[in-house]
Amino acid sequence: MRKLIVLSLALVALAGVHWGCDDGGSHSSSDGDTDGDTDTDTDSDSDTDTDSDSDTDGDADGGMDGSTDADTDSDADGACDNTDDLAIIDSEDVDGDAVSCGITCMSATDVPACVSDCLQGDPGLSEGCADCYADRVECVATYCASDCIMDPHSAGCLSCQETSGCIDAFETCAGTEVEVDTDTGTDTDTETESDPVDACINSSDSTIIGGTDVEAEAITCGLGCVGEPDVSGCTADCVSTETGLSDDCSECYGDMVECSVTECFTECISDPTSVACTNCQDSSGCTAAFDLCTGL
Predict the structure, then answer these.
(1) pLDDT tens track for 179-222
(2) What are the angstrom distances between the C-alpha of 50 and each of 29, 78, 91, 113, 179?
């Protein structure tokens, strides 16, 4: 049962790959200047730009023409503001595709590049536009993972994206506006009184639990439900379909996944079997609610 908290790693695994909304990389480029200067970089930009800064503008000033040259990323502004990309954005769930690509790429060496490549393949965005979505995934995972893990459309998630600059950066990069859906329903399923009791104590469910690794199925289902407005319900439906457990018994597993991610995200992120994670599950009521619900 403790392993169910692994769902929380789906998004945060992305955040552990040195992510940040800005590029932040300090490249020790040779600056490629052909004007014969010693390249002491007195233009105060600390040479963090990703281009080769070959200084081909003919001013022979070695980058001292007063420009800040703050090319902190390689994405062109308005990269999605074209006929082909807009047609895809209007007809496809690109946000959902970005979440799925992020999960698929969470073990990649270069996660943002992997997400971009994934979105270029399906739904077929251009490279520049796909980069904008990959950067937003990166930013959200870095700054808003705990706010967005349960529901990326929630008011809390969107508020975090706004205050952290993720939305502004995306809108500038893509040239499109983020549509804020205020009808999100942020209910965290606190109506424990209506939850089933001893739902798994019956011959059918007991047989399935005894012969099937239901916890593993719940983890797989939970990962597939990341980004859904109702993670608990989605997970429960999947567990019921995959294992044959009754709806009520499956609901217990769905609720456990949601409670652990919502209440114990920080404590369980590094090690779901740690004392801190277990204590949080106990003190927050996740364990007691699961035991009462299943009867196990």
Answers:
(1) 655 444 433 333 334 568 999 999 999 999 999 899 888 877 87
(2) 9, 19, 33, 15, 30
CA–CA separation, 73 and 92 (whole Å):
26
What does the alpha-carbon distance between residue 133 and residue 173 come to, in Å, rounded to a whole number? 9
What's the pLDDT at 36?
A: 44
Q: How far apart are CA 250 and CA 253, in angstroms?
A: 5
Q: What is the mean pLDDT of residues 27-35?
A: 42
User: By 3-state DSSP, what share of the chain in percent is helix, strand and coil, each rounded to 5?
Assistant: 55, 0, 45
Query: In sequence order, which residues have a C-beta less than 8 Å from that of residue 206 and are 6 or more positions away?
Result: 200
Please write the tens of the pLDDT for every residue from 235-275: 999 999 999 999 999 999 999 888 877 787 777 666 666 78
Closest CA to 185 of 215, 217, 151: 151
Q: What pTM was estimated for this model as a whole?
A: 0.52
Q: Which of 17-26, 92-101, 128-137 has the highest mean pLDDT?
A: 128-137
The identity of residue 267, as a single letter, is: E
Q: Is the dihedral of CA 205, 210, 214, 215 positive or negative?
A: positive
126: left (phi over 0), alpha (psi -120 to 50) or beta: beta
Whether residue 53 contacts residue 109, with contact meaning beta carbons closer than 8 Å, is answered with no
For residues 169 and 29, what is the distance between their CA atoms, to the nearest angstrom? Answer: 25
| DSSP annotation string for 26-71 | ---------S------TTSSTT--SS----TTS--STT-SS-----
